[in-house]
Amino acid sequence: MNESDIALLSEAMQRRLAKTSLAFHRSMFGKIEWGDRLLCIKGSRGVGKTTMMMQRMKEEFARTSKAFYVSLDNLFFARHSLREVADWHYKNGGTHLFVDEVHHVKHWQTEIKNIYDDYPDLSIAYSGSSMLRIDRAQGDLSRRQMVYRLDGLSFREYLAFEGVVEFPRLSLEELLADHVRLATEIVGKVKILPLFKTYLRRGYYPFYKEVRNGYEFRIREIVDEVLEKDYPAIEEVSIATIRKTRKMLMVLAASCPQTPNMSRLYQELETDRNQGLKMLSALEDAGLLKLLSTESKKVKAMSRPDKIYCDNTNLMHALHPASDVGTERETFFLNQLSVVHDVTYPAKGDFLVDGKFLFEVGGVGKSFSQIADISNSYVVNDDVEIGFGSKIPLWLFGFLY
């Protein structure tokens, strides 16, 4: 490795830093213990992992050379190792290393572990795909690091990102107990429903501001990158399996939220049940689908889900523009709640949260008929600014993270 190689990496880093804005920080930014020696930020493509690390660098190390950033999908790493960069940085007075797209290097866990152990004065922050299975690959990092998961923008974060209004995160219990006052306070500051409709189609992925037209096309490109680059980098899968997984995603996106005849789908994909379930799990891990089952994720084994949704409404519209409004409502609710709560499929109603709170999601006229006389049950109404009693506006559930 020579100085010209490092110069190219350094120039790439400086270009990224120059383009990084400090005007808005994700809520997760303040929750990360940046002082830890080893931390990981997992998340789907496009949710802002790189931006978060660049913001940290720009704020804390702008006037020094103590921090260095690399992305492991750079062609530089076809000939060189991350350890070489760490060694050069450490010997030149570096104290912090920021590593992006870590899953693009084989045996990355072992390499991170060795750098952590051999350079005790070097702090490492790295990011990778939401598909990373840190406890399963080579090298035991579980005792050495903190792992954070970054999701797309919540509706609350979107409003702040747009410079419309800033409002603190709500707990679910606070929302349920005091939703009328909370909604009244928010709608007194902003016309909420038009902004909510915009967010459902264009607001989950922070890069929407960089794409004037073709936002849905960019989302579809991300899907291709996840399936063609991230998936095979993390799992040993064939080209045929990647193609089958893509077809499965498109079939399911067109049928959400109903679960199709999975046996027939497996037959159409020329795969068996076991492989089909692995593909489903991979699509969920990648942040492309959400699988809803009667059992909690904490206890369930890999099995056929009861309902299948696209991960978020922006992705839903990009993959299947003809999706109906009912699917959009349920997708938004599940997406926002599942970030901070355990959501399962109940015998009655649409969603059971933390095994305690039952929700039925619908339009303005949605009633309690399907969940009547069930304790801790609520109706979630779209197209209303302020609810009453146990009827709560849908948009308010976007303030949970």
Low-confidence stretches: none
CA(first)-CA(last) distance: 44 Å
Radius of gyration: 22 Å
Helix content: 40-55%
Order of helices and strands: HHEHEHEHEEHHHHHHHEEHHEEEEE
Relevant terms:
Rossmann fold; 401 residues; 5-stranded parallel sheet; alpha/beta
Describe this structure in words.
By secondary structure, the chain is α/β, with parallel strands linked by helices. It folds into 2 domains: 3-150, P-loop containing nucleotide triphosphate hydrolases (Rossmann fold); 157-399, no CATH class. Helix content is 41%, strand content 14%. It is built from 14 helices and 12 strands. It has helices at 3-19, 27-31, 49-60, 82-91, 108-118, 155-161, 172-187, 192-201, 215-234, 239-255, 262-268, 273-285, 313-319, 325-338; strands at 38-43, 67-71, 96-100, 123-129, 146-150, 289-292, 307-310, 343-344, 351-353, 357-362, 377-381, 391-393. The strands form 3 sheets. A 5-stranded parallel β-sheet has the order 2-3-4-1-5. It has a 5-stranded mixed β-sheet with strand order 8-9-10-11-12. A hairpin with a 3-residue loop joins β9 (351-353) and β10 (357-362). It is globular and about 70 Å long. It starts with a helix and ends in an 8-residue tail after the last strand. The model has no long low-confidence stretch (mean pLDDT 93).
